[in-house]
Fold this protein.
Amino acid sequence: MKIVVTGGAGFIGSNFIFYMLNKYKEYEIICVDKLTYAGNLSTLKTVMDNPNFTFVKADICDRETIYKLFEDVKPNIVVNFAAESHVDRSIENPDIFLQTNIMGTAVLMDACRKYGIDRYHQVSTDEVYGDLPLDRPDLFFTEETPIHTSSPYSSSKAGADLLVLAYHRTYGLPVTISRCSNNYGPYHFPEKLIPLMIANALNDKPLPVYGKGENVRDWLYVEDHCKAIDLIIHNGKVGEVYNIGGHNEMKNIDIVKLICKELNKPESLITYVADRKGHDMRYAIDPTKIHNELGWLPETMFADGIKKTIKWYLENREWWEEIISGEYQNYYKKMYENR
Ligand code: NAD
Ligand code: DAU
């Protein structure tokens, strides 16, 4: 079994590679990653010497290189994690999001059509459903919820999803799509809420909460997401969409306060800053379909997962300190100074 994992030097893709190499000793994993600001080879250092693992530095938008790779490797399965993934960056510069998230997906699926594939799996997001109001806790996103996006990021992911479904209907490509809620865990890039707050708190820097911090996200430990994708690529029905989420809704402000408590830092570090443009209020996944069809259930409780995550950031300071010492400084200034 040969699996091409795109975006495997990023947060979820790397965790998926670790999970799969550990679980399936006979599988070959070929990681394809452009190594953008969000991709780090140091993340993959523990698997670089594994004979079942190969790293290829390539852009999924580069048709010639991707075709050559498929011709050489002849993968059985492709799992596409490669994407521009940060909503705030998409608000600043949508262009690269359209390129990578839509055009890159098209190139990968064209390669699958040309060279043949058993399964193309698209890693999508609950953000394609837009948001839910705070005063309707009875509402959840199901697979039937209409696509209704808010940001250039979520629009680009929705565009890709529609293209994936079109390639299934038009060309019979054997596809599946998963739409997951917010992940957290090791190797999460420190531009995102949880790792940013952990890094800032450890450095006694202000903790910038957008708006009033009332927005709700449905947090899932990254390994539970990886387990769900594993089930979908092996047992999921071709042409289907599966929602993934752990019924773990939390307000941003409560997460930030929890991080302060765990790290023994004062809540006075919390600073309310200008809100994100078009900020989605609430995400909440109904995971009934993946539970009933594939038997998936989240295994890590948030109370344990956040402790494990904080411990990981404490024990792996060099990983995130290296990241925040470089170009990240310019990003941080641009996004947060005078906000
Ligand atoms: P990430 O930003 O941490 O990693 C993205 C990876 O893709 C990086 O290694 C980057 O170098 C690579 N990449 C970017 N452009 C590329 C290109 N053109 N060619 C090849 N590689 C490229 O993202 P993440 O948080 O790990 O998210 C992975 C996927 O999961 C994304 O598709 C995202 O939309 C989706 N998703 C993320 C979450 C979440 O909470 N993080 C939740 C649901 C879905
Ligand atoms: O729901 C899945 C999505 O979750 C994925 O598709 C995205 O790739 C992923 O980045 C994530 O999107 P969010 O926008 O929800 O995640 P982020 O960590 O950027 O923000 C989480 C919440 O915290 C959001 O309401 C904005 C807020 N926030 C974020 C940052 C970075 C702050 O209040 N302050 C911050 O500094």
Remarks:
- The mean pLDDT is 98.
